[in-house]
Amino acid sequence: MNILIIDTLPIYVHGLKSGLVKMLPEAKIVNTSNIDSFWLALNEGDISIILLDGEMEHICCVDLLDEIFIKYPEVHVIVSLRKVKKSLVRQYLRHRAAAVICKDQPLEAVVQVLRAAETGLVCLPDSSVLDDDRCRSVETLSERQREILSLLADGQSNKQISRCLNISAGTVKAHLESIFRRLNVNNRTQAAMMFVEEE
Predict the structure, then answer these.
(1) Which DSSP string corresponds to 53-89?
(2) Where is the Response regulatory domain (predicted)?
(3) Which one, of 126, 125, 122, lies nearest residue 138 by Cα?
């Protein structure tokens, strides 16, 4: 796991980086506080996850998310906020953020989000952000989750999906559980119907 942190709060970055080094000794962690060195680090390193400050001055986080997705679609972006608002969470998820976290989350929770995001799972700060129909949409799913949902809608089993996407059946199951929660459905049939309706 190679992590790039872009944040303008040096104390937060120092504490986060120190904690992550201890809890993820295998990870390579790079940090920056400005956009030029951010792109330089992204171009030079084999980055798999970006921890992006969603409240940087003079930078539109949504535009940056779109640009990252166009240039580096395989990189998962986690947006960190001092205060999480439902409207911001929805906005960032629509622009393909893999997760939205609060800066005061315990380090253990951040590590869990990093591990989940690396596998393509979408992570939310709290389930209450889904209490709105606008968020119960296929478009808020990650690219991998949409692939799985498409295969599910074609009638494929977990085993068939895992073979098709070259991932384990356990990973398929974890994705499906996340999809069901995101779409607020209880089973495969409801999820498939929602996919067909929105497509």
Answers:
(1) ETT-TT--HHHHHHHHHHH-TTSEEEEEESS--HHHH
(2) 2-118
(3) 122
CA distance 22 to 42: 23
33 pLDDT above the threshold of 60:
yes
CA 167 – CA 39 distance, rounded (Å)? 30
Taking Cα atoms as reference points, which of 137, 136, 129, 133 lies closest to residue 86? 129
Q: What is the pLDDT of residue 161?
A: 93
* Alpha-carbon span 17 to 15, nearest angstrom: 6
Q: What is the DSSP letter of 8?
A: S
> What mean pLDDT is reported for the chain?
84
pLDDT at 58: 66
For residue 101, the surrounding DSSP H or E stretch is strand 99-102
DSSP 124: -
Contact 131, 173 (CB under 8 A): no
